[in-house]
Amino acid sequence: MEVLPVDLPMCSGCSRTQQEIAIEIERTHNLTLSMQISSGKLLSNYVHHQGIPFGEPDFNPPIQPFPGLPLPTLSTSDWLGLTDKERLQQNTCAFSNLPVYLASVKCQQMDLNPLEDELHRQFDSSRLHCLGLENNLKSIMSSLGIVPGPVVSAQPLEPDNTFFMKLTGYYICHLFQDWVNRCEKDIALLTKKYPV
Length: 196
Fold this sequence. Notes:
Elements (H helix, E strand, L loop, with lengths): L17 H31 L27 H5 L3 H29 L4 H27 L18 H32 L3
């Protein structure tokens, strides 16, 4: 027996079947699982190439949000209180802005660590994965009859010295990993409502 979502009625003009939507959601969930691995590797490799104090056991600055890229963490009760529409909208906003920020950090790293081709490649790959995930999320929203809300645009990164440049990149890499983890949880919840 198919489980229908409680807060997302199918739009009358949608031509996709429940099964097609379920397959798309599962494919998106698989992408987030893959991105969890790659985002962890990016953060680890980034920290490795920044020098002291990055990578030190006690280096754990509080993560700062950016325009269009808020902190993805919520209390369990607040997270469970979100509708599917709100979850999808928040993820779409984050993953539409992450490519801009990741590209900016890559440019900074090309100046700070010009010989680290693997790190640069990881930024390119991460940016492309974000674009793919954003497209998947928008497609799911369209299939479910959800009209995307306004998105806060990313702002250029303008750190004024080398340390803050590195710290800004650290924040972005951490937010990328955190948003991937949050998106995986959100889409996993959606797969239960649209089982394949």
